[in-house]
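Morning, I've got a small favour to ask if you have a moment. I'm working through a protein record and want to make sense of it properly. The fold is given in discrete form, as structure tokens running alongside the sequence. Can you walk me through what the tokens say about the fold? Thanks so much in advance, here it is:
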Amino acid sequence: MSPHFTDEEFQSAWRELDEPQLEGGWELFVETMGVTIHRLYDKETGLYEYKVFGSLASCTAALCADVYMDLAYRKHWDKYVKELYEKDFSGQTAIYWEVKYPLLLSNRDYVYVRERRDLDVDGRRISVILARSAADVACAEAGGVLRVKDYKQSVALESDGGGGTKVFMNYFDNPGGSIPTWLVNWAAKTGVPGFLTDMQKACSKYSDYCQKK
């Protein structure tokens, strides 16, 4: 049993590939670049939680999962990463991630835990990756960078039956501070589809990267 995530959380993530759970206030936000995004308003924070359904046409699910998990490689292809590494913080292993924000806005950083499971569901191979912020990890906050303390993400990846991958992603974060609405909307509408496009390109170059390490 994982100390951070339950079996049910992993099961819930992959089930969204078969039957998207969009009752209870979820609304269609945007369809773009082969990606459909729904959002759910969170009254407590005034922010939105998002669910993303899409596909990556030219890379296998196993490769997508490997690329997604490779922190060192992500620093090569994700232009918004300033720092990203896994470290032992006073006996607790967690990931530190600093994200570049536009000029005049402070960068954000995250301290979080994650776990990947490759599931066999009646002969179907599905990779599920869960992540959430770890407020109890002793990682000092850096000056000039705002710590995101409320973050969660789940990703499910499965073959589309050809050479591509079906993708489900559910995420929420509260970046704190004062962020313009236009930037929030831009990040949701174009940032996530753009991330998937960049990840597809990264998958195509991963073999070369691994050979050169």
